[in-house]
Write a structure and sequence with these properties.
- The chain is α/β, with parallel strands linked by helices.
- It has a single domain (24-161), classed as Glutaredoxin, CATH 3.40.30.
- Helices cover 46% and strands 18% of the residues.
- It has six helices and six strands.
- It has helices spanning 2-21, 30-38, 54-69, 88-97, 112-119, 149-161, and strands at residues 26-28, 44-49, 76-81, 104-107, 129-134, 139-143.
- Helix 3 packs across helix 6 (149-161).
- The longest helix has 20 residues, at 2-21.
């Protein structure tokens, strides 16, 4: 019986890693990003990050944790990679290694002067950066900094209940 339980455990463990590795990293142009932001049908956080950004990676675990905590309120997270194009093929393996299960898209744009103001007029391009949006209530708030866990949770709560 122990042998069967051990094999089942190993099977499920392997399956969970396959599920993480299987994440498809879609390429978006600015028009897809703009469309996703303006048509988000639930409270959504668009987090702008890169694999080389240490503060981005430090905040990612609690982004995932808190979005899971508030999923019953419809909260979603979209991780928008701002890595250089040559890093695109490595993002999938990077996500698996770092247990990133939230949806990731690669912003296939290189002109920050074009995409930054489309996200927020004040965005200088610094990462991490996060856009909190609830189109049903008109709520929209942008942060150009690493967020602490308590700050993130407070912002998620505000996004869920408040109007912009």
């Amino acid at each position: 019986m122990k042998k069967i339980a051990k094999h089942l455990f190993l099977f499920f463990l392997a399956f969970s890693f396959l599920e993480i590795e299987a994440q498809e990293i879609k390429k978006w142009k600015l028009k897809e990003l703009s469309y996703a932001i303006s048509n988000a049908d639930s409270p959504t956080i668009f987090n702008f990050w890169a694999t080389f950004c240490k503060p981005c990676l430090e905040e990612m675990p609690y982004f995932q944790e808190l979005v899971k905590k508030y999923e019953s309120a419809g909260v979603k997270l979209v991780l928008v990679s701002l890595d250089l194009p040559k890093a695109y093929p490595k993002i999938k393996a990077f996500a698996a290694k770092h247990k990133i299960y939230a949806p990731i898209v690669f912003l296939d744009e290189t002109n920050a002067d074009l995409f930054c103001p489309a996200v927020d007029e004040q965005w200088s391009g610094t990462i991490p950066a996060s856009l909190f949006i609830n189109n049903k209530t008109g709520y929209r708030k942008f942060f150009e900094d690493q967020l602490k866990k308590q700050q993130l949770e407070k912002e998620i709560q505000q996004m869920i209940i408040n109007k912009g």
